[in-house]
Amino acid sequence: MRTRSIFAAFPVLLLPVLVTAFPGSSIAAEQDYTLCTVGGYFSGSGDKFLSGLAKDIVQKRHIFGDPICNAAWKNGYKTGENFSRTGKPKNQAEKFVFQQAVEFREQVFYP
Length: 111
Known about the structure:
Blueprint: H1 2-45, H2 48-60, H3 67-86, H4 92-109
């Protein structure tokens, strides 16, 4: 009888560990997808160095080719392409991508 109560309590004891483990993972994945967006932005704007750097990081984190990363890369590419052509973002979403690109560039060149 005592053995059953230990196994019954096991999921309850494991729950706090799982709750604290998964948010950290999702935050890391979110940051990784930001690199996909930034890499696409620099690719679209013609900056091969920063685009390649972002691509190398994303490949090492094993998400390059992931459907979410691909979509983020394409979105960033369109933004970079538009910004290099017009010199200004056309909406709030493009402003956000541009700000992410600025932050990445600052981390690379001014750590």
